[in-house]
Write a structure and sequence with these properties.
Blueprint (H helix, E strand, L loop, with lengths): L18 H16 L12 H15 L3 H4 L4 H9 L7 H22 L1 H22 L11 H14 L4 E6 L5 E6 H18 L8 H19 L13 E2 L5
Parallel strand pairs: 1-3
Antiparallel strand pairs: 1-2
Helix pairs in contact: 1-5, 5-6, 5-7, 6-7, 6-9, 7-8, 7-9, 8-9
Pfam families: Rhomboid (PF01694)
GO biological process, one term: proteolysis
Protein name: Rhomboid family intramembrane serine protease
């Protein structure tokens, strides 16, 4: 038997306590709203002026692989700052949906301090891994995708039997429930296929997703081990088709 503290949310059981997840989501949303990508801050102007401000903003706070390994202390911090910057409303909302679905249970299982360090550390390394593989690229990379992918990897190890509600486009977006051990490896396989077809330039950093997912899975395995894996009951987890 396991204590209620480690039992995932279900009908009649309280939701997991996840203040770090909520705080990180709130911070990402606030930074996006006051930045140029939201289009809501009039200080950045409109039209071409706004586009130029967005490019400068992403270059300053995002990861630019060609600059990262130049020895600049500021550039070395960008894999951390980039985790809180998003390029569009779709980018932000897609990431926050995945984080909300999988972050709460993972945070409660790990604990607040460990989860915070896990999220920031894996996110940093995921973006660093992408930069290493694209060291000559001058394209800026932003977003929490690498860190959230690590959360997905840890969730897969900790709660493999938790049921995830998925919307499948080839089934007319019918909401169907599948266990995490089926949904998340399928998601990772899609990232792998997409990364193989990706070209250098603007787009989704699928390699960062893969690095983050692998780091999260390895961390959960090393930290908790198979003996402490939680046997999760079915949990509501709405998942869209947008990739983190």
């Amino acid at each position: 038997m396991i204590s209620n503290r480690r039992v995932p949310y279900r009908r009649g059981v309280r939701r997991p306590s996840a203040p770090v997840t909520y705080a990180l989501m709130t911070l990402c949303c606030l930074i996006f709203l006051i930045g140029p990508a939201s289009g809501l801050n009039p200080s950045y102007g409109t039209g071409d002026e706004l586009l130029a401000a967005q490019r400068a903003y992403f270059r300053h706070w995002g990861v630019v692989p060609a600059e990262l390994f130049g020895g600049s202390p500021r550039a070395a911090l960008t894999p951390a700052t980039a985790l809180f910057v998003h390029g569009s409303w779709v980018h932000l909302l897609g990431n926050m949906l995945f984080f909300y679905v999988f972050g709460m249970m993972t945070e409660e299982r790990m604990g607040r301090v460990q989860f915070t360090l896990f999220y920031l550390g894996c996110g940093y390394l995921a973006l660093l891994g992408y930069a290493c593989a694209n060291s000559g690229s001058g394209q800026s990379l932003v977003g929490a995708s690498g860190a959230i992918s690590a959360v997905l990897g840890a969730f897969l190890f900790l709660f493999p039997r938790a049921r995830v509600t998925s919307l499948l486009p080839f089934l007319f977006f019918l909401p169907l429930r599948f266990p995490a051990w089926l949904v998340l490896p399928f998601w990772a396989a899609l990232q792998w296929l997409a990364a193989g077809r990706a070209t250098q330039g603007p787009g989704v950093a699928y390699l960062a997703h893969l690095v983050g997912f692998a780091l999260g899975l390895l961390f959960a395995w090393a930290r908790f081990g198979p003996a402490t894996r939680v046997k999760a009951a079915p949990a509501p987890a709405p998942e869209g088709e947008n990739q983190p």
